[in-house]
Design brief:
alpha+beta
Length: 410
């Protein structure tokens, strides 16, 4: 299936050994926005069954709008519904405005979705099962709803990369009877769509293509959880590299000035690249070590990474892992990965053959504690590259002269 180019800056090509990928159609500048992509599907990453929430997170499910996933004003959070914009049918799902409610009722929270979610919450067939299954159930409801409200987008979803593996088949065998039990209340056009094979295929598309929309960074421990997942038809073509040349930004809690949606994701170049170069993202924070990266990529995406960085680190990672394990057993504090890279960069100025990519971490990795974000220049003005870098996790701005500035305001 041929794929239309997302813009004049990028094209989708078959790349040997890597499948389809995004390639620069022309020379690209640091900070340049190469893609704005809107989701064809959004669904919550929070527990479907309220009883699954721990006491410490009992109000989490009502902290975000159930359509655009913005953080709700404090007056609309919690259990109080006095000023909330609630779904008129289930009186459970809440929205940041009447406008969001209106959009949701015609798309993401259609009558069938409302009934399906309410059915699961009332009958609680997923109580006692892992959160992952609850999130997958919400994805399947959203996907089958997409088949009804936008068949063309549903076909785009099915065209994306990903085939069922043992894990997705097992999940489908458990979830499909629950989803198909909703057939009797489904729209007529949807009643003949449900099948175990399609459910398995959909779960595979979700596993390999979903992007997380993140919650704000916790001021207490620096952790950042997922509030929702989205399927982005063009962004899904970016392949992974452990030293990416582009990174993704989202501004879920902001009001985009250019008229785009708050759930759009924006991909910006980290540094200049020539025409014909593949444009890659990192699928997780770049400061993870070799063993952790390889484990995550195999478990979550089904491949082993052979990028330049991995080829270098594979020569010494076994020793490092052994040292870390020994230190952990002895109760000694293990040096943070960021600190290791900074020390390598400082000590290898004369001979950096052991770690030739140390400059990346000094230049493009956020130095805020517990962040792990990647820095990219702000979009260039005309032909001039900005000297201000923005972190794609915490929003911190940092100029070339190392003078830190405040995070961007909405």
């Amino acid at each position: 299936m041929s794929v239309a180019a997302p813009s004049s800056l990028l094209k989708v090509e078959e790349i040997q050994g890597r499948g389809r990928g995004m390639v620069a159609s022309q020379p690209l500048k640091a900070g340049q926005i190469v893609l704005r992509d809107s989701p064809i599907l959004l669904y919550s990453a929070l527990p479907l069954i309220p009883q699954s929430l721990s006491s410490s997170s009992s109000t989490l499910a009502s902290s975000f709008c159930d359509h655009c996933f913005r953080t709700l004003p404090s007056s609309l959070q919690g259990d109080s519904s006095s000023s909330a914009v609630l779904c008129p049918s289930c009186r459970h799902y809440r929205f940041c405005s009447s406008n969001c409610l209106s959009k949701a009722l015609n798309s993401s929270h259609s009558s069938w979705v409302c009934q399906a979610l309410s059915h699961f919450q009332a009958n609680s067939p997923l109580i006692g099962h892992p959160l992952e299954l609850q999130v997958q159930a919400q994805f399947l409801i959203a996907s089958y709803n997409l088949a009804n409200i936008s068949p063309s987008d549903f076909q785009i979803l099915l065209s994306l990369h990903g085939s069922p593996d043992d894990a997705t088949i097992s999940a489908a065998q458990f979830l499909h009877p629950l989803i198909s039990s909703l057939c009797s209340i489904a729209p007529i056009g949807l009643q003949n769509v449900f099948s175990l094979e399609l459910t398995s295929a959909l779960l595979a598309k979700d596993k390999y293509n979903a992007f997380g929309l993140m919650q704000p960074v916790s001021v207490d421990d620096g952790q950042r959880s997922v509030r929702a997942y989205g399927i982005y038809p063009y962004a899904s073509f970016f392949n992974h590299d452990c030293l990416p040349n582009a990174c993704r930004f989202d501004y879920v809690d902001s009001n985009p000035p250019d008229g785009s949606n708050n759930t759009d994701i924006i991909v910006r170049m980290i540094h200049d690249v020539p025409q014909g170069r593949e444009i890659c993202l990192s699928y997780f924070p770049v400061n993870e070590n070799y063993a952790s990266r390889q484990k995550r990529l195999m478990e979550d995406y089904g491949f082993t990474c052979n990028c330049d960085r991995c080829n270098v680190e594979s020569n010494w990672s076994d020793n490092d892992d052994t040292i870390e394990e020994d230190n952990a057993e002895d109760g000694e504090e293990v040096m943070d990965e960021e600190d290791q890279y900074e020390n390598m960069a400082a000590s290898d100025t004369d001979n950096n053959n052991d770690f030739p990519h140390a400059y990346f971490f000094l230049r493009y990795m956020c130095d805020r504690p517990n962040c792990g974000g990647t820095l990219a220049p702000l979009p260039p003005q005309v032909d001039s590259t900005s000297n201000v870098m923005e972190c794609n996790v915490c929003g911190k701005l940092k100029s070339d002269d190392e003078q830190d500035e405040a995070p961007m305001e909405d």
